[in-house]
Amino acid sequence: STQGPRPAGVSSGGRPGCGPMVTVVNSKADVLKASQAFAVNLNAAKGLQEVMRTNLGPRGTLKMLVGGAGQIKITKDGSVLLNEMQIQHPTASMIARAASAQDEMTGDGTTSSVMFIGELMQLAEVCLSEGLHPRLIAEGFDLAREDCIKFLDEFKVPVSDPLNDREKLVCVARTSLRTKIAPSMADPMAEVAVDAVRCIKKADTALDLNMVEIMHMKNKLVTDSRLVKGLVLDHGARHPDMPKRLENCYILTCNVSLE
Fold first, then answer.
1. From the CA atom positions of the chain, what is the Rg in Å?
2. Which of 96, 111, 143, 159 would be 82's cystine partner, CB 3.0–4.6 Å?
3. Cβ distance 54 to 114 under 8 Å?
4. Strand, helix or coil at 22?
5. Which helix (H) or strand (E) element contains residue 113?
């Protein structure tokens, strides 16, 4: 009997009574054994944790992000950093997606999620070095999650009417914003955010944040930011002789362009 040449990257073998076994491996793929795969994945989680560690909390440092076209963005918001970074490792990318989902659900906690996952991976590394099976570690994480949820249900403090408790809402917003911007800007912006939400919130209706529009005035400072309870039409005057200020006037709004 004769056998033709085998293609590159394909190995064939057989067992008595069985057909040939074929294994196809991408020539550019990295093939790692179990212990090596654990080490690579754990290092990816710890590496992402080290990047995000320094911007945690109100005293965290700002990061400067430079795009390919030269645009510069300075922030310490974990969600912005994870979305702007080009993460190649699949495990680190999965952690970044989980943290981004946290931000989409609650609007905060992105950096804390990455830090928490990194710490769990470090503890798991110690257990793996002692010979504990990964499945047992995963089951332990599940048990810990159930206990944490049970504790949070007992520890939480219900608020009967949060919409009318402006001071508590401002405290919550201030706690979140102080981890992202300077306190001198976070405190007034927290009040602006709370007042804006209270303006558009209707009873028994889901909150529509599209009713709040953020307008950027490039000729102003950050400290000049304020809430306008109405419409802001940043078009300027059509003639230099037009008055700059009018009171008790009629306003016509059209959904068509007049230009």
1. 28
2. 96
3. no
4. strand
5. helix 110-129
Distance CA 92, CA 173 (A): 29
User: What digits encode the pLDDT tens for the residues 193-237?
Assistant: 999 999 888 878 888 888 888 888 877 788 888 898 887 777 777
Q: Has residue 34 got a pLDDT over 60? A: yes
Q: How many CB atoms lie within 10 A of CB 168?
A: 13
Report the pLDDT value the prediction gives residue 100, as an integer from 0 to 100: 86
**Letter for the amino acid at 216?**
H
pTM: 0.67
Residue type, 96: A
Model pLDDT, residue 2? 46
Question: What is the C-alpha separation between 103 and 107, in angstroms, rounded?
Answer: 4
Task: Locate 234 and state its tokens.
Answer: 């940043």
- The C-alpha angle 240, 234, 231, rounded to 5 degrees, equals 125
196-200 long-range Cβ contacts below 8 angstroms, 24+ apart: 196/227, 197/169, 198/163, 198/166, 198/169, 199/229
Average pLDDT score over the chain: 81
